[in-house]
Amino acid sequence: MANKLVLVTHGDFADGIISSIELVLGAAVPIASVCVQAHETVLAVVERTEAAIAEFGPDEPIVVLTDIIGGSTTQSALRVRARAAGNVYFVVGLNLGLVLEIALLPLIARTRASLTGSEFSSDPVSERDTKTASSRMTTVVREKNEAMLRRAVAAAKEGIGLLRDLMPDDQDLNRRQTDPDTAEL
């Protein structure tokens, strides 16, 4: 299943990305958009972003992606992050490749049922032990999810560049594509 995403962008960029995601992956991606218009305040964008996050479940990972690092979208996300639950992650620099990478990551939910391995095999006996184990579990889940998100960001960065640098042997491309007017996408 795809991860839950909230795209926060200037203008209707987020809706365009959603249209592209649906073209590539189908409508199976749980995704919301916050399209910021020129007349909106940062506070209004914060409220709309928090409302979009609230539409998703509290235990499932939610990734909020913004378009420009210094823009009002990211300024709003910084305010949302200060109040957000531990299952919400924030990524800056939205593009289609990055959204595709993140949508398909195997992010881990914060529920004990979704976790396996020796790090969670202890059987706490007291309330204090339960709280300690829960806190430790949340920290480990967050660290694992953040590591996956960092790898997705790095992979998306690898796909940005001059086409000639990314695919220098355009002769090979020409050999595979006989008629550019009729070739399928």
Automatic annotation (TrEMBL):
Annotated transmembrane regions: 88-109
Ranges for domain PTS EIIA type-4 come to 2-160
Q: Where is this region: Disordered?
A: 118-138
Q: Which Pfam families match?
A: EIIA-man
The UniProt entry, under Gene3D superfamilies, shows: Phosphotransferase system, mannose-type IIA component (3.40.50.510)
Q: Which GO terms describe its biological process?
A: phosphoenolpyruvate-dependent sugar phosphotransferase system
Q: Which keywords does this Swiss-Prot/TrEMBL entry list?
A: Membrane, Transferase, Transmembrane, Transmembrane helix
Provide any one GO MF term from the record. Answer: transferase activity
Q: Which GO terms describe its cellular component?
A: membrane
Cross-referenced PROSITE patterns: PTS_EIIA_TYPE_4
Name the PANTHER family for this protein: PTS PERMEASE-RELATED-RELATED (PTHR33799), PTS SYSTEM MANNOSE-SPECIFIC EIIAB COMPONENT-RELATED (PTHR33799:SF1)
Q: Which protein is depicted? A: PTS system fructose subfamily IIA component
Species annotation: Coriobacterium glomerans (strain ATCC 49209 / DSM 20642 / JCM 10262 / PW2)
Taxonomic classification: Bacteria, Bacillati, Actinomycetota, Coriobacteriia, Coriobacteriales
